[in-house]
Amino acid sequence: MRVATSTRMASCILFALAFGSAHCFLPAKGSLARRHPSSTTSSPLQSSKPNDIFDSPGWAAIKQELDQVPVFSLANAEGQPIKYRIEKSNASFEVPLFYTHVSDALAELETAKENTPLPGMDISPYPLGDIFEMWAKDTAVIVPNKKSVIQAGAPPNVNAIGQQVPLFACMEIAQENESGRPVLPLFLELDDANDAVTQAVSFDGGREEDFEVVCLNLSEAVSQLANAKEDQNAFHFVPPASSLEHIRDYLSG
């Protein structure tokens, strides 16, 4: 990661100036324990997260942006996400897991085929906006990429399941949209954020070390963006390049 730990808080302050408030990514305490996949249905988890953002004026635009980001889940032959038994707060529930990175979903698919094969099982993409709502209502688990979680500050032995989804942004590479408003890209992949910095420097000059990449988490970013004023920065969620490449290959195959 380009940014040093000692400068991360200062960069989050820059993000706050653009959107009103922000939080650095911090690894969640504790984690969820995953059991074997199941194709059965079950009662949803009780909601433990605030859902006021879904009634906010800004949510529609945020959802539209989030829906451009694919997340991946193991699915049965009918295309329905396969559920896993999750232990949380001494209770067990069955919910689908949605992976932010296609490589993690493919790895889980291979493991599931070996341990619990189901007819027609494969991975399938789903729009992040819909899945974020399910996550906020505790009816799904979004699993971030372990490498990204570690790059965001978590320890090397972290379990990605149960962690916040990290985002990476560089305040200096915001671009103007068609209406002249600055648009800030929020990357799910640090390498993609660093590549954007390299491209910006090649076009506009400067030194890469002067362009600081900061990290934040998805839920806090959505919450702050939902309550941002209309004249503040626009935004764009950028999915991992590998995820888009997988979908292109699938559609062209």
From TrEMBL:
Organism: Stephanodiscus triporus
Protein name: Uncharacterized protein
Signal peptide positions on this chain: 1-24
Keywords, in A-Z order: Signal
Keyword Signal recorded: yes
Domain of life: Eukaryota
